[in-house]
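User: Quick one: structure for sequence A, then sequence B.

Assistant: Sequence A:
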Amino acid sequence: MNRSMINAANTMNGLQQQLDLISHNVSNSSTVGYKRQEANFNSLLYQQFAIPVDDTRGNEGRKTPSGIREGVGAMLDHTSTNNELGSLTTTKRDLDVALSKKGYFFTISTKDGIKYTRDGAFNLSQVDENSIVLVTGDGNPVLDENGETIVIPSNYQKISFTSQGELAVYGEEETVPLNVYDLGIAYAQNPALLMRDGDNLFSAPAEQGIENPMLINIRGQERSQIGLEQGVLEQSNVNIGNELANMLNAQRAYQFNAKSITLSDQMLGLINTMR
């Protein structure tokens, strides 16, 4: 197999991964709080065939090496998460909440440990006849700032959220709350470094360190910066138009490289038939 076929095959593999990533973004365009993923490519190893510089040809100011650079294609180096805010949609549902600022996440408990999400479409799950638990759409318990499950009395009449991330539960007397809970809200100093765990969940790398944690639990006066909104949901930040344009570009690049393999195969066939 000649170098042109290796180059094209390697690049096609990366483009196929990019197409899979784009299709994943499109399929989650209506997922609450979803953050789009982006593909980042890098060149594979290459060889530089140098040619002696001839100063008589006006090469004095040349900034690039003279000769030919021959590589073996490109690869999908890594995927990154676009953490820009999605549009906020009013639902007027008491258990729908949205974080109106970038970098803040709800803290939830899963079977795999503590995770973080931007999806604020909460529900209530009955525990027993006297208590219910605040959960996500997937049934994972939402935690308070101390890492405890939020258990609400079953005789509540009204639920209210504040911009500081406080959950107030009222009974028949709607002026004095039965209980007040501080939602577990974490702030990511660099959201791009969070690990995606599927199901619209994130986690911090295990080696984040203690002195400079990636995720900071918001407490006390810092809670005034949260900017929680009740009756509102943050939509996905996927732009369908941009995703379709990226898909067309990736498909054309894939077809170009596939054609390159076909032409290389035809050239090898001609060489084999030569006498």
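Sequence B:
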Amino acid sequence: MTNPLSSGQDRTPVTVIGLGPMGLALARALLAHGHPLTIWNRTAEKGDALVAEGARRAATVAEAVSASPVTIMCLKDYETTHELLVPAAEALRGRVLVNLNSGTPAQARAAAEWAAAHEIAYLDGAIMVPPPLVGQPGSVLLYSGHQAVFERLQPTLACLGDPRWLGADPGLAVLYNAALLDLMYATMNGFLHATALVTSAGVPATEFADLAVNWFMPTVVMDASLVEQASDLDKGDYPGDVGTMEMNLNALEHITRTSVEQGVHSDQPRLMQEIAGQAIAEGYGGNNYLAVFEILKRPATT
């Protein structure tokens, strides 16, 4: 009998559980690539359009997972996933479970342990694009867990977006997800705070955004040199020949004072100032700003 997950097979039957906006996007991408699709959702009518497009609706979770060798879960958290799957564990035995929920690395590892105890092949994952971009060129989905399971399933996963395997630790995908979202929110908050500063003087946000986003960010902040300097983070080497932490603290102090003068929220720059001050107190005053990494690697002090 041919293995339905073997290399080159791109019509593997798949079950999708959870039909929120992201689950619907995953299901439609699978249908678009010809995968026989079974769906289940607490609110059954959310799947009406998919049924009209060719999906089969299961009455129960156990029926849904029994219909396919691969089940993709796309729910709000691991608690909900566990609640739904425990009664269907026997039906999942010997099949593949791909969990695309949001949560923490510890939760992902616990889910993998539960799956292993029930002889369920398990991959944990993270979707790094909004629903409209699922299945589109340039979209990326992250996976972690058993490499052999990933490689067998890769042709199926590829229709959802570029599948990237991060390692055998099942917690890596959600860890990357948290880290990348951390970068997104920190960058967005930086842009919003900077815009608040200049608009406090009557400058239109559109005028500032052109300079900030089209020139400053790609040229000064997120240029290729940051990738090159990542090796310095691994080595703990922060030469201060171009600029020191003390020089950067001076700039951060000015940003905080300017925020206060302009009547703009000052907690964000003040926190950055305090972290830089801690780095200097710990002996990194003559190093460059990347030495802040040594502070951020540890829990915050109270």
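The chain is about 50% helix and 10% strand. The longest strand covers residues 121-127.

User: Thanks, that's what I needed.
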